[in-house]
């Protein structure tokens, strides 16, 4: 008996369904080192073929603001949003990076919308306002609504043509453990995923002196892998968190699972002179730092990528990401 192939190999075997691929698989099953090694060799050949077919043929242009990084333009159409508001620095660092890969449209809240999760506005009309972008040439709209509203409006009303990718961030502050269920940043990514689009939420684990550039670079690298077909377009929902460290101090990239991050919520009472009011305040977090969790990865100085997609195929996507992590980290350091 041989050990079962890793997850990425399984997902790539899916490409071998046609008659020609099945014949190739039977041929490689006779590999002198056994079926497993034969499968790996066959899959390696398939990867090279897929990349050669799907690699974009476009001019090379510099990645503005990123120390001479060189990126091929694939002509992707990307919708960018956030929950920190339309003028947040992290959003525009993200847009600056992604603009080297294709056409970026920005539809973001006109004010901070942290903690609204996936909520949508149903009880009053939404207002959409075009604004002058900090980066010339980027179509930019502010929405009097939630990040989820921004994605729905962006996909259904604003962006002209099909969208290839939805990216939310770069968020000021981490989105780890149970926080993903109330995060407006992650909520926006969920809405992109609900439209069968590859989607990601990107956050940095700090509220002060935030280093946005590594997060923007990583989002760009992942978008490239999506455009090349290395990552599946319709099966991807990623929650990405980076420690707030210079790239030289980051210890790698890890594919993680969600941990539990519980809070002792505090309710403060007050009176405005007319009536009582209550203010919910998040208390000190109780961290669950079990091995393999997003929280432990950040505490130990690693980048956390958490696939949020559930159901059939989720393990296969995680397997592909795990094999990509060393390459992604090397590319991230090289781009610095």
List the helices and strands and how they pair.
Layout: H1 7-13, H2 19-28, H3 35-54, E1 60-62, E2 70-72, E3 76-81, H4 89-98, E4 102-109, E5 128-130, E6 140-143, H5 147-158, E7 165-172, H6 184-194, E8 199-204, H7 213-227, E9 237-242, E10 253-255, E11 261-263, E12 266-271, E13 276-281, E14 285-287, H8 294-299, E15 303-307, H9 314-335
Parallel strand pairs: 3-4, 3-7, 4-6, 7-8, 8-9, 10-15
Antiparallel strand pairs: 1-2, 5-6, 9-15, 11-14, 12-13
Helix pairs in contact: 1-9, 2-3, 4-7, 5-6, 7-9
Please, could you describe this protein's structure?
With 336 residues, this protein is α/β, with parallel strands linked by helices. The protein contains 9 helices and 15 strands. The strands form 4 sheets. A 9-stranded mixed sheet has the order 5-6-4-3-7-8-9-15-10, with helices on both faces. A two-stranded antiparallel ribbon has the order 1-2. The chain has a two-stranded antiparallel ribbon with strand order 11-14. α1 (7-13) packs across α9, α2 runs antiparallel to α3 (35-54) and α7 (213-227) crosses α9 (314-335). The chain starts with 6 loop residues before the first helix and ends with a helix.
- Proportion of strand residues: 15-25%
The coarse silhouette is globular
CATH-assigned fold name of the largest domain: Stationary-phase Survival Protein Sure Homolog, Chain: A
Largest sheet: 9 strands, mixed
Instruction: Compute the number of strand runs.
Output: 15
Spatial order of strands in the largest sheet: 5-6-4-3-7-8-9-15-10
Query: Helical element count?
Result: 9
